[in-house]
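Dear U.,

Please find below the material for section 3 of the report. The protein was modelled together with zinc ion; I have listed the sequence and SMILES used, followed by the predicted complex structure.
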Amino acid sequence: MSFPLPYPEELLYSTLARAGIRYGLTSPKQLLDEIFSSRSVIATLDFPNHLSIVANWLPDAFNPERLIDHHTLFPIYSPFVPEARRLQCIKWMLGKSHGAVHLALGVVASRIKIPRFIRYCPGCLRVQLRQYGEYFWLREWQVSGVEACPEHGRLIDSHIARPLQDRHRFVAASPEKCLLVKQSAGNVESARIGDQVRQLLKCPNQPSPAFSQWTHYYQSLAHLNGLSRGDAQINHHAVSEMILQAWSAAWLARNNLASGVSGYGESDWLRAMFRKHRKGFSYLEHIIVNYAFLGNNFQIVEVLEKVRQYPVEDLHSQIQTGKDEDQGLSIDQEDWLHHLKSYLPKQARVVSPALYARLYRRHRDWLQGVNSRRHIDGHVLRRIGRLNWGERDREYLDMLLQCAKLMKSDQAGPRRSRAYYLRMIGSKSTIEKNLHRMPLSQKFLVTHSESVEQYQIRRLKNAYRALRKQFDVPPRWRLLRAANLSEERLADSAKKYLEELEI
Ligand SMILES: [Zn+2]
């Protein structure tokens, strides 16, 4: 029996569920064993991982990247996070993620709530049954802000709650789970969001714009519409008015986005969007604002194209040497300028002494000119470097806080050590090397990292909670066994905690 091929627009989660049915595996653990050879894999609707393993079951055309692009919700989120983070998320999805993708894409901390249940369109299911002989879950049905199918009307909630309660079970769309009830007409807001979401889902895998490019884009959008006074002074009140003209307050409230539009607090998302971008915004926020400014002609893929054309502000653009002097340079001179991008003049001289000697003989004035300018630039460069660490510190702290939020909602899982947190937010070794430059993140790690004792206590607590269903006072040995602990390994404070449980 072969592994089922994903249908167009089908969530990979749905394909895996169909695989279980095809193989006749009724228990979720059996399916995990069969497909992943691991029972710890979590059934994830939006950003599944272990895709390299899944791709092994499929023909070559379904490589892991294609699975991400065409069978997950990643394309809706990826254009709006910085490129490095986008690439990191792809890596996580190919292998293990431990919830890090949700964190890095901002889904965990987002003010936008994911739909409470897996949703479906009865009209589309009828078509699927005719065309393919079975039902499957479509991607766009599960996207916040999309409330209806453009052909058949409002989406219907199944009884399968999100986040999925049975974390290891893949549930297929079936006549028992998806009753073919009558659908009412969809609303205009959902149709608008749906148009843009479909564009993003079809958009091929492309590099994400940088925050600085988004900053430029929104400032010029306001400027072109006469909503900025002088230099980047945005008329936030007028921006709010435009949003409220395009979107009903009730709809904004339903999507948890109203407070940012009508309020005037510092934390308003709408204000932040027209300021310097320090963190990403969701697809929904981008769509809302652009639709208000551009109307029915708006295409999110065109906006992304435009944003990518703005210059990226980075270190290299700050230390470019005078442009007109660069023309008609000899190869030696060009080589020297190239060196100066990475080295100070003194270091460059040590790296390439012969080159330096030749230039000193032939272009002494030019050499001294660019070197002295590089000294000043080097100063600027160091200052920018420091600023960047500050910004990075805030960004990491932000991810760590999201991380802590995620942990709070899930009391199971491995020890939340310092190393664990660092792995969750990115490349452990690079962050670790630079932690001394990031005091906020460092402080977070000191106060939040879980010690071995704390970890033991958490396991005992979980064991106690589980065993209380069977026992009034669970016996000590059962608690230890359920917590996977032994008397010998028990730390003093955990021992004390255990004794209190026994009273
Ligand atoms: Zn439909």
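For the text of the report, you could mention the following: Residues 212-309 form one domain.

Regards,
Y.
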